[in-house]
Amino acid sequence: MDESGVSAQNTVMIFDTTLRDGEQSPGAALNVDEKLEIARALEEMGVDIIEAGFPISSPGDFLAVQRISQEIRGCIVCGLTRARREDIDAAAEALKDAAHPRIHTGLGVSDVHIRYKLRTTREKALEQGVEAVKYAKKFVDDVQYYTEDAGRADPAYLYRVLEAVIAAGATVVNIPDTTGYTMPSEFGALIRGIVENVPNIHRATISVHCHNDLGLATANTLAGILNGARQVEVTVNGIGERAGNCSLEEIVMALKTRRDLLGLDTGINTCRLYPISRLVSQLTGIPVQPNKAIVGTNAFAHSSGIHQDGVLKERTTYEIINPRDVGVPDSAIILSARSGRHGLRHRLAELGYMLDDDQFEKVYQRFLRVADKKKTVDTRDLEAIVADEVQMFFEETYHLEHVQVSCGNQSIPTATVRIRGPNGQVFCDADHGTGPVDAIYRAINRVIGEPNELIEFSVQAVTEGIDAVGRVTVRIQADEPVNGAERRVFSGHGADTDIVVASAKAYMFALNRLIAARRETEKRARASQ
What residues are paired with 433 via a beta bridge? Predict the structure, then answer.
């Protein structure tokens, strides 16, 4: 202890209860093999204690604790009990093969728990708790005692209980904010009061277990640490009863990121945080919310053009954590309508597209149009845009400026097109057809007048969803020989969120290729004369 009465120990023990409290999340039931897989991942990550389950609650829980005890050798394995002999017997049996076993027992200490849940008195509850600790000590040296609903208990009674159970042999005392009721200032003061008023507190480690009903689990846990707690009870992704528990990844990274302020360490390999988050999410079926701190998909994603520009110049402008420190490969530049040129150019370079300024500007303007229609523009969208706007290795003779279609089950499909010609002239025309695409192609043919036969038309969704970019590929066959080839075939492609527009672009692309090839043939013929 230092002069303030707070332990000088500079390491915070990580007690993971994902397999016990976390599994109590509705729909999160895990089988024995799944629990064992998570336990191995927790051990590899470096947690100090794994609360493997509540052995007496079911045969499956007993077997899970037993299997984990047999296979996990690098950390303490803990089993939960009520302050009852039959519970403790079950836990002791399940833990008998553990390299480092711990029994976690206890009782409620708030008057509402004592009166309505336990239906007893303060004195009898205290006696029952002391007897439970003494009985558990017959099986294991390491006994943890929980004082359920400590956040709403009378502090003086709580101090008495803690002194008594420590005297009986408890090595860890767990101070839970069971209902997530307390404010950080209150919870911090509660831990400080324990440090100052329990005479033998130096003989036990203070642990804190905070629930997230008011969204304060991490804040309360940190308040407990600042006031003397040196064990924290957490779950991966913060899963657990009701609104969940304190999140393991948030506490670990808060301690690491603000070591300058807190001066405390954990034994966690933080690079394993993201992989284990995904493992727990996959096995429990509980998705991680996108904006979840540390492990959410948006935790290191930047959409704003201002933020993207800053992060690309210097990561620390908008990131206080290096994503690789938690197992995320790198920051994500999310392309949306708010993204700027810097972010788009960076992403294109990552994809291998080295565009000159004119090409990039064409892609950027097209990107903005797509981004206005979609929430985000992903890799496949970009590839389609680049293919449509840049990879036209010939002079465009005719440019489609506008297309409009009228169709329906009670009307004749009709299309109107506006096309800019080789000398800047603008042509407008319309036609009808068997469907909207046929009508568009007939209208285009009226303007351009290049005889051809459409021999292939295919449509593919580039991305998923109703707002997907559609990619159309067409192949047309010239009616007359081109470059000495008999009825040469030309392909074209177009992409747009409007499949009708994409169809028009694809046809124009193929026609321009045909016209460019014919012009080259004529040029060569003149040169040979």
Answer: none
Which pairing describes strands 489-496 and 13-16: parallel, antiparallel, or unpaired?
Answer: unpaired
Q: Using CA atoms, how far apart are residues 90 and 98, in angstroms rounded to an integer?
A: 14
- Print pLDDT tens along the chain (529 aa): 344 343 447 999 999 999 999 888 877 788 999 999 999 999 999 999 999 999 999 999 999 999 999 999 999 999 999 999 999 999 999 999 999 999 999 999 999 999 999 999 999 999 999 999 999 999 999 999 999 999 999 999 999 999 999 999 999 999 999 999 999 999 999 999 999 999 999 999 999 999 999 999 999 999 999 999 999 999 999 999 999 999 999 999 999 999 999 999 999 999 999 899 989 998 998 989 888 999 887 766 555 555 555 645 666 665 668 778 888 765 555 666 677 788 788 777 765 566 778 888 888 888 888 888 777 776 667 767 776 665 554 578 999 999 999 998 888 999 999 999 988 999 999 999 999 999 999 999 999 999 999 988 988 776 666 667 788 888 888 877 665 555 667 778 888 888 899 999 999 988 988 888 788 778 777 877 6
| DSSP single-letter state for residue 264 | -
- By DSSP bridging, strand 13-16 and strand 143-148 are unpaired
Q: Which residues of 290-319 are buried (b: 16+ CB within 10 A; e: fewer)?
A: eebebbbeebbbbbbbebbbbbbeebeebb
CA-wise closest residue to 387 among 346, 329, 348? 348
Whether the full predicted model's pTM is greater than 0.70, yes or no, is no
- 294 HSE (CA, 13 A, CB side): 27
Q: Which amino acid is it at 27?
A: G
Q: What are phi and psi of 473, to 5 degrees?
A: -120, 130
Domains and CATH numbers, the chain: 13-284 (3.20.20.70), 301-389 (no CATH), 399-528 (3.30.160.270)
* 63 contacts: CB under 8 Å, gap ≥ 6: 32
Cα–Cα–Cα angle for 476, 441, 445, nearest 5°? 85
Please provide the distance, in angstroms rounded to a whole number, between the alpha carbons at the two ends of the chain: 102
- 148-172 burial: b if 16+ Cβ within 10 Å, else e: bbbbbbeeebbbbbbbbbbebbbbb
